[in-house]
Design a protein that fits this description.
The chain is of the alpha+beta class. The chain has three domains: 146 residues, Helix Hairpins (Orthogonal Bundle), CATH 1.10.287; 62 residues; 83 residues, no CATH class. Strands 1, 2, 3, 4, 5 and 6 form a six-stranded antiparallel beta sheet that branches. Helix 8 runs parallel beside helix 10. The longest helix is centred in the first third of the chain and has 72 residues. It is elongated and about 140 Å long.
C-alpha cells in the first residue's frame, strides 16, 4: 500500500514538472501575455450568465451528503477491519497455543526418558543375566539414544517454528494496528470537519444497540438509563418495530416505577395515626385517578385493616380512660377529696380540680392516669381561672362525713 502511494505521488510530481517546463519553454506564449494592451478583453474576462447555477443550500446539501457517505463508509471500513483483525488474531493465537502445547509435550517426553531408561535397566539387571543382560543393556542404550535424538530434533523444529510464528504475529499485529490507526485518524478528521453529520451517523449506527440496551435496562428497573438509551435510539432513527418494542419496555418500566412509588406512599402511612383512615381514602381516590387502583388495591386494603384495628383499639383505650377518670372523680367527690366544695372535672385519663374563688373557679391541680389505679398530680405554674364549669362530666366534692368520735366532740 505504501509503495503504491509513493509511485502515485512520484508520477504526479513528474507530470507537474513536465507541465511547468513546457510552459516555461514557450517564449511566444510568454511574449503575447506580456505585450497585450491594458484594454484587451482577455485581461478582464467576464463570465457569461449560466442557467445551471445552484443555490448555496443545494451545494451545502450535496456536500453534506458526500460527507455523510464518507463518514459512513469509514465507519463501516473501521468496523469490518476490527472484526477481521480480531478474527485473524484469534486464529494466530490459537496456532501459537497449539504449538506451545506441542513443545511442552515434547519437553515432558524428553524429561521422562532418563527415569524410564533407569527403570528398565534396573528391571533388566534383576531378571536377566550374562550375555542376555549385556545385549539388553546395549539395546536399551541405543533405543533411548535414538529416541532422545528424535525428540530433540523435533523439539528444535517446533521451537524454530514457534519463533517464526511469533515474529510473524508481531509483524502482522503492527500492520493491523497501523491500518486501524490510519482509519481512526481518517474518521476523526472527517468528524472534525463535519461534527454534526458525524454525530448523526454515530447515532444511526448505534441506534439498534441503543434500542436493545433500553429494553434490557427497562427489564432491570434502571428507568433513567433506559430512557436515555431510548432517546438515543430515536435520534438514530431505529427501525419502527424495534423502536415500538423499546418504547413498550420503557413504558412498562415507568408504570412499574409509579406503582412502586405509590405503594411506598401507602406503606408510609402509620395505621396508628388518628387520621390514617382518611389518609388512605385520599390515596385510594388518587390511585383511581392515576389508573393504579388494580395494582395497589391489595396494599390499600391491608393498610385499611390495620388502621381500623388501631382505631378500634384507640376507642377502647379512650373509653377505658374515660371510665377510670369518671370512677375516680366520683369516688373522690363522695369522700370530699381532695378538697370539699371543689369541682372535679374529668376527661379521658385526667381529672382537673377547680376550687371556687368568689367570682368563678381556679384550677388548683391536675391528676393524670399513669396506669390502672395509679394517678399523678401536677400543680399549674400559673393561675388559671374560669367563670363557669362545663355543663357535664364533673362532680362536686362533698363535705367529709364526720366520724362518731368527731360528732361527740
Amino acid at each position: 500500500m505504501a509503495r503504491k502511494k509513493k509511485k502515485a505521488e512520484a508520477a504526479r510530481i513528474a507530470q507537474t514538472q513536465a507541465a511547468s517546463s513546457k510552459a516555461q519553454g514557450d517564449p511566444l506564449a510568454h511574449d503575447h501575455s506580456t505585450t497585450k494592451k491594458p484594454g484587451c478583453q482577455a485581461d478582464n474576462p467576464v463570465l457569461a450568465p449560466s442557467t445551471d447555477v445552484r443555490t448555496i443550500e443545494e451545494l451545502e446539501g450535496r456536500i453534506a451528503a458526500a460527507a455523510r457517505a464518507a463518514i459512513m463508509h469509514t465507519h463501516e471500513q473501521l468496523t469490518e477491519t476490527r472484526e477481521h483483525v480480531a478474527e485473524a488474531r484469534l486464529q494466530r493465537e490459537g496456532k501459537l497455543r497449539a504449538l506451545q502445547g506441542d513443545i511442552e509435550g515434547l519437553e515432558k517426553a524428553l524429561a521422562d526418558l532418563e527415569p524410564r531408561s533407569a527403570a528398565l535397566q534396573q528391571q533388566a539387571r534383576a531378571f536377566l543375566q550374562g550375555d542376555e543382560l549385556q545385549e539388553m543393556l546395549k539395546q536399551l542404550h541405543l533405543a533411548f539414544s535414538k529416541k532422545q535424538l528424535d525428540l530433540e530434533s523435533e523439539l528444535d523444529s517446533k521451537r524454530m517454528a514457534l519463533a517464526v510464528l511469533q515474529a510473524d504475529n508481531e509483524a502482522r499485529s503492527e500492520e493491523e494496528d497501523l491500518e486501524l490507526q490510519l482509519l481512526a485518524d481518517q474518521l476523526r478528521s472527517f468528524e472534525a470537519l463535519a461534527p454534526q453529520i458525524a454525530r448523526h451517523v454515530s447515532l444511526e449506527l448505534a441506534a439498534e444497540e441503543n434500542a436493545l440496551r433500553a429494553i434490557e435496562l427497562a427489564r432491570e428497573g434502571k428507568l433513567d438509563e433506559a430512557k436515555e438509551a431510548l432517546e438515543l435510539a430515536r435520534a438514530g432513527c431505529v427501525g419502527a418495530d424495534l423502536l415500538a418494542r423499546a418504547e413498550a419496555a420503557v413504558g412498562a418500566a415507568a408504570h412499574r416505577a409509579e406503582v412502586r412509588a405509590f405503594i411506598a406512599r401507602i406503606e408510609a402511612v402509620d395505621p396508628t395515626y388518628r387520621h390514617a383512615i382518611e389518609r388512605l381514602k385520599g390515596l385510594e381516590l388518587m390511585a383511581e385517578e392515576e389508573g393504579l387502583r388494580s395494582e395497589v388495591s391489595r396494599f390499600l386494603e391491608e393498610k385499611k385493616k390495620l388502621a381500623l384495628k388501631a382505631a378500634e383499639e384507640r376507642e377502647r383505650e379512650l373509653s377505658r380512660r374515660w371510665a377510670a377518670a369518671r370512677r375516680q372523680a366520683k369516688l373522690w367527690a363522695e369522700f370530699g377529696e381532695p378538697r370539699a366544695g371543689a369541682a372535679l372535672v374529668y376527661g379521658p385519663g385526667k381529672i382537673e380540680v377547680w376550687v371556687p374563688n368568689g367570682s368563678g373557679w381556679t384550677l388548683r391541680e391536675v391528676h393524670a392516669l399513669v396506669k390502672e389505679g395509679v394517678w399523678t398530680k401536677r400543680t399549674p405554674r400559673q393561675r388559671i381561672n374560669c367563670r363557669e364549669l362545663p355543663s357535664k362530666n364533673f362532680y362536686i366534692a362533698a363535705e367529709p362525713i364526720a366520724t362518731a368520735g368527731e360528732a361527740a366532740n
